[in-house]
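Lab notes, practical 5.
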Amino acid sequence: MSEKKPQTPVKSNSQAQSKLFKAAFGMGSGTMLSRLLGYLRDILIFSFFPKFVTDCFVAGFRLPNFFRRVLGEGALSVSFIPSYLELKELDPEKAKVLRNTVFSFLFSVSVSLSILGIIFMDSIMGAVLSYGDFQTDSEKLGLAIQIGRWMFAYLFLVTQFAFSMSVLNAHKKFWVPGVAPAFFNLGFILCFFLPESILNFQGQQLSIGVLFGGFLQAGVVLLTYVKLVGFPKFNFSFWFKPFKRVLLATLPSVIGIGVLQLIGLINLSLGARAGEGALSYLYIADRIIELPQSLIAVSIGTALLPNLSELWIKSKDEFNDSVSKAIRLFLFLGLPSAIGVFFLASPIVQMLFQRREFTYLDVIAVTPLVKVYALLILVSGLARIILPIYYSFKNTWFPVVNAAIVVIFHWFVGTYMVNNYGLEGIVYATLLSGVVSFSVLGFGLKYFIDTFVFGSVAKALISFFIPNFLMGFGLYILSGFIPEDKSILQVVYLFIVILVSVIIYFGAAKLIKLNEAESVLSILKRKNK
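Output from the prediction step:
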């Protein structure tokens, strides 16, 4: 009778897959509302402000976002969550001390950086925007400095949000952190309509909107945090051994993420060379692909880290199986997203942004950037899926090596490409850098834990070829019927084409009996009940 025991791991794997799907979709559904409001925010910005102002806004907003990703989301996600989960199981009181110590540390650092950024904004902007019309136009550089100085206080607010989000994610709470950025966008949109009579400079409502939205975003997540674990308390026990271990483990990842985030600053500097509107165009292209990236790669990666941290301790086989399932899930959703964005880039840009200040000539300029970035959805998304694998077995130094390689590569290739191909050269360089990052991280996993992710990627691509080919062919034919002029008819045709493409894709996936199609559809059915 004992022969029936091998069935148990199958059940365990099925349960692990179900948990990953549910967590990823919980994060993704919360993110959807945020992204939709984010698009409304961006539509208002680029419709009512000239590119002179929007370029300055993009430059000013990039800097606090750089520190946010390094100090907040990056540091907490990669080192704090695994250590906190482990300590929570062994000694809940020590886990509480660790939680409050990390909060106190981040509070102190973010306040200090915010103050320093505000004081030295002139020098920071002068160094980053040292080319192009920002240097020849003192008025434009001055506006970028003003906007940047106001928005740098957002760093403190978003760091508090990132801390609360990480604690909630560690407790498997994903929906509220996913939906909280919607409050940021809502607050931002409300400030957009501030009367001009109370403003001191052009575009100031954008700066105020970032601060007010950041306050709402942090507040919503903090309320859930308080209900779950109580108010955060100051604890400056930086000599506490678990905190020192987290800090030592965090430093390499902070450096790695910081170095990788330098690509954004490099693109900011390179974009300044490409003339007025270049920074705005790059921002819009990036925002369009951010929706599928956030809904798919970021959601899966965020949900994957706590699960992998547990499985690494329990079972190597289940660990590898979870990695393979995460890659397959990402490619099952990411491939059709990339194909759809590629074929529908022009009508999407036109529908979202063409109005008032944003003309059809701007649509023509942005469309090829979006097409290249559509491919970036795949390579960048795969890299985001792989990164949590390293952090789950507490290897934080190799991502640093990878980040350094990618940044050096991007600086030289990006400089060459922008000098020879202009604005489009920047996005080509970004795509190539994404390929390098994925490749280095993938080969690293083979060396460290004998996990061959390229095999999982190849198998998934073969498995998903038929539905993606059919959908892509359908898009190629159907996209030709979408009117080129901006109209209600164009919007209707665009949505019909998207709907038909989704039906073709999932219909073909079900016909060839892909497990991912069944899992996604079953979760959607349960959520609609």
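Observations recorded by the TA: The chain has two domains: 11-32+277-394+454-529, 49-276. Residues 1-13 have pLDDT under 50 and may be disordered.
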